[in-house]
Amino acid sequence: MTGLDGSAPQENVWLAAVRSNPDHAKNYAQRWRNFTDAGRDIYGEARLIDAMAERGSRILDAGCGTGRIGGWLSERGHEVVGVDLDEYLISVAREDYPSAEWQVGNLASLALDDETGDLREFDLIVCAGNVMTFLAQQERLPALQRMRGHLASQGRLVVGFGAGRGYDFVDFAADAYRAGLELEQHYSTWQLHPPAADFIVAVLGAIPVPPEQDE
């Protein structure tokens, strides 16, 4: 878990929570169902991604949870793949949004192949819901590298997470650069308000020639 001093977690936060409470994933899924039943809008991130995308775009929902973002996008005609490390959440996504493709996997080892055995490319990758801060410190750079590897030549990665979760925005930007990504724009909300200290929505593109990686 994130340290009391706000330091980066040494263990994947989601896996630690599930180990502590085996019903954690079920409770999480029910929480989003309750939001929907109460009439709350839970699709703000998805609407932004849809506005950035050509019709029928290839979109990866990285850390998709129950599929609320990728599922909404698939229902609007996009070719969506969602990946999450929790099998229960993926089962919910498959049931609720059968028009998308859902896979169990860790972003730090992400490798989605196409029919020829090459890495699948995506026009947009969305990583919302504080997913990056759930990753253990040693998983963060590999996850960014893996997502960068799945970007099409003009593709963009959109990442959103809050402050105070053990991942300083400056450190995130540095990791992104090391992964071969450049920060093109950043905002404080999914409605594109100006940058602020409490939340970041970062739009990143692939650097054509990635910088040398540290050994």
From TrEMBL:
Q: Which domain of life is it from?
A: Bacteria
Q: Name one GO biological process term.
A: methylation
| Keywords noted in UniProt | Methyltransferase, Transferase
Q: Which Gene3D superfamilies match?
A: Vaccinia Virus protein VP39
Membrane-spanning residues where?
none
Cross-referenced InterPro entries, in alphabetical order?
Methyltransf_25, Methyltransf_Superfamily, SAM-dependent_MTases_sf
One Pfam family it belongs to:
Methyltransf_25
**Does Ribosomal protein appear among the keywords?**
no
Residues in Methyltransferase domain copies: 59-155
What GO molecular function terms would the record report? Answer: methyltransferase activity
Report the protein name in the record. Answer: Class I SAM-dependent methyltransferase
